[in-house]
Design a protein that fits this description.
The structure holds two protein chains of two kinds. By secondary structure, chain A is an alpha+beta fold. Chain A has two helices and four strands. The chains are: A alpha+beta, B alpha+beta.
């Protein structure tokens, strides 16, 4: 299991946070319970299984929603 | 294409505004309906594009967002040929979100300033021995780094070679340069003001003290209170409910105008954004003033506090006790003091240190068979004599006879607020020392401020004797003071207060008081950035600065109030809008959108006031 933090462009509407949360949770390999979208610091934190999904896939899913990914960090748990 | 449109949202709003002006001038000024209709149509279509894209993306992940409501409303208005309204609504919505973004960034600015202080690069020693600039992420524990004058310390580490002065304001809040030499600890995010250092990395990235402070503040600004979680759940169902309501109204009244007006009026914007905005601004203000508040739950609890408990040493007092009074009961005082100093040298107890310092340079003997008696003192063998150093209880345990004069001295010393250190040699009392700690400057005024802010009980719990504790309490005007308290007694005391439904805050140094810090509803650590303090407490006063406590309390009260105001504004606006749809003539979609966007800006601006909050007295 790995844990990731993705820094996004500044989020300005709380419903953006909800969209990103739902989109990230819907991805296979992402630990649903661990998904946390920090609205004020504009970050997404979650745990995922590197064998099932890569960090790039998650980034792509978020970018597809229209939010720019600035930086991401992955740590082995 | 989608991304292009979204990124040009602000331009679209501007074009929309121009087209709306063109539309109205040609309609009212030149009576040219065709040009007017054309301008409004273009403005509507352009304006709704980014909103519709966002709505579509939201629906894809099963979220009924505000965008969905607005898109349906605009499309509806368009089809009933209400072109002016659809143009104005899209413009207001886009312009509103532009203003929201600008103002939100302001409320977040205080915390952003903090995170931007994080170091980004380091000069790392490579295999060839040369130093090369690398990103701070590439530094590992054990790496050797070079820090030059003016640079930020990239990681927590230990000085290997070199000397210099460091400004540790980012960790301690105190901007007085601290001298560093070989083996000194240095902290990430602090600035080397002069000198050059080579350091070895001990902790990196998020594990550094600075990294943890940032993480804590970031988590705090997004932590949610019970009320907020309720609002979140509520708004999840609220938006779809507005949609359903609009459909029902349409089915019954067959009035599309009315139905789409409800869609616009029902937008929950101010409600969802009001509380997070107060939260982030309040925590941001704290971070700027050396007060770390761990989230909105803490803000809610602390604002209601009625009892604050202080642990004496290092909290109300300077924490640097000194020998203030002494009596010697022997002619050979030189020998007695020598023995005493020899025993005290073995201990790092604060009282022992005070005694050693007071005696100063003197002949020292080797000490054997040292026995530390918990809650009593030390018994040891020095130069063939049995020497006991400690409190009255220890003397009784050692069967040392205390005559009338000694007893009177003890009472007198205690009355002056001293902690006592008695010394016996071979069962005979030789010396009595009274050790006192100074009260921190300004504490009295700060306590008065806390009372003015509505704290009813100010309690002192201390391990010291009752005389000392009473003296401090009298001097500071505390409501209660208890001495001879062991850590477990303090915990029990807090439990008891909580059972009597008091809201209790405990102020301690976070080292030996962790249980009490954790037990009280609000644990306040006076920590110069120590790990334990940051971990176990709810509020951290950086640099152990007591004067920040009243600010912290005032700030949480202001923030909690601010949240309540924002909720009231948001709920009030929606209720008034919905009521006026049904009971008034003047309400329409454009006015609804205007009021809605205005209410969002009002709550953000209201939250922003917290950034400037200062205690008034």
């Amino acid at each position: 299991m790995q844990s990731a933090t993705i820094q996004l462009e500044t989020l300005t509407c709380p419903s953006c946070a909800q969209k990103i949360e739902n989109a990230t949770k819907a991805l296979g390999g992402v630990e649903k319970e661990s998904v946390k979208v920090l609205f004020n610091s504009s970050k997404v934190k979650f745990d995922f299984d590197a064998e099932k999904i890569s960090i790039e896939d998650v980034e792509k899913a978020i970018t597809a929603l229209g939010y720019e990914v600035k930086k991401s960090q992955v740590k082995v748990k | 294409m989608q991304r292009f449109i979204l990124s040009k949202k602000n331009h679209i709003a501007l074009i929309g505004a121009i087209l709306i002006i063109v539309g109205f001038t040609s309609e009212l000024g030149f009576k040219n309906e065709t040009v007017a209709a054309l301008s409004f149509t273009i403005a509507s279509v352009l304006g709704v594009a980014p909103i519709a894209i966002q709505a579509y993306q939201a629906l894809k992940v099963k979220v009924v967002s505000i965008d969905v409501l607005v898109t349906i409303a605009v499309v509806g208005a368009f089809f009933v040929k209400n072109l002016e309204e659809s143009a104005i609504v899209t413009f207001l919505f886009l312009f509103g979100s532009f203003l929201e973004q600008r103002t939100l960034n302001k409320t977040r600015s205080a915390i952003k300033e903090l995170t931007e202080m994080a170091p980004e690069s380091a000069l790392k020693q490579m295999e060839n021995g040369e130093f090369e600039e690398v990103a701070v992420d590439e530094v590992d524990v054990g790496d050797i780094l070079l820090v030059k004058t003016g640079a930020k310390i990239p990681v927590d580490g230990t000085v290997l070679t070199g000397e210099g002065h460091i400004n540790e304001a980012s960790i301690t809040g105190e901007s007085v340069p601290v001298g560093k030499k070989k083996d000194s600890g240095v902290y990430a995010g602090t600035i080397l003001e002069n000198g050059t250092l080579q350091i070895v990395a001990d902790r990196i990235g998020e594990d550094t003290t600075f990294g943890r402070i940032i993480e804590l503040v970031e988590e705090a600004q997004d932590s949610k209170s019970e009320a907020e979680r309720f609002i979140d759940r509520f708004s999840k169902y609220y938006t779809p409910a507005v949609l359903v309501l609009a459909i029902i109204v349409w089915l019954f009244s067959r009035d599309i105008e009315l139905a789409i007006t409800i869609l616009v009026l029902g937008c929950p914007g101010a409600l969802v954004i009001g509380v997070p905005v107060s939260n982030v601004a309040g925590i941001g203000n704290g971070a700027r003033h050396g007060v770390l508040l761990k989230g909105s739950e803490v803000i809610g609890d602390f604002s209601k506090v009625d009892t604050i408990i202080f642990d004496k040493t290092g909290t109300l007092t300077v924490g640097n006790p000194k020998v203030a009074d002494r009596e010697i009961y022997t002619d050979n005082s030189e020998e007695a003091l020598s023995y005493l100093a020899s025993v005290e040298k073995e201990s790092d107890h604060p009282l022992a240190k005070a005694v050693s310092k007071h005696i100063g340079d003197i002949k020292l003997y080797p000490v054997e068979k040292t026995d530390v008696i918990k809650g009593g003192g030390i018994v040891a063998h020095v130069d063939g004599h049995r020497v006991a150093v400690g409190n009255v209880a220890l003397m009784e345990q050692e069967n040392v006879y205390l005559n009338e004069k000694v007893r009177a001295d003890i009472a007198r010393f205690e009355g002056m607020g001293n902690s006592l250190v008695l010394t016996s040699i071979d069962g005979e009392l030789k010396a009595l020392m009274g050790i006192r700690d100074q009260i921190r400057p300004g504490v009295k005024e700060d306590l008065q401020r806390l009372k003015k802010l509505g704290v009813k009980n100010l309690v002192l719990l201390s391990g010291d004797n009752q005389g000392t504790v009473d003296l401090v309490a009298r001097e500071l005007g505390l409501t209660e003071a208890h001495g001879h308290m062991l850590p477990e007694d303090k915990s029990a005391y807090i439990e008891d207060l909580k059972a009597k439904s008091h809201i209790v805050a405990f102020v301690g140094d976070g080292v030996n008081d962790s249980p009490s810090l954790a037990l009280a509803q609000i644990g306040i650590a006076m920590g110069g950035g120590t790990d334990v303090a940051i971990e176990t407490s709810d509020v951290v006063l950086m640099n152990s600065d007591f004067s920040r406590l009243p600010h912290a309390l005032g700030l949480t009260k202001a923030t909690a109030n601010n949240m309540r105001q924002n909720i009231a504004i948001a709920v009030g606006v929606v209720l008034v809008l919905l009521a006026s749809v049904f009971f008034s003539e003047w309400m329409n979609m454009s006015i609804g959108m205007l009021v809605h966007e205005a209410s969002i800006l009002v709550v953000i601006l209201n939250g922003m006031r917290l950034l400037r909050y200062k205690l008034r007295y």
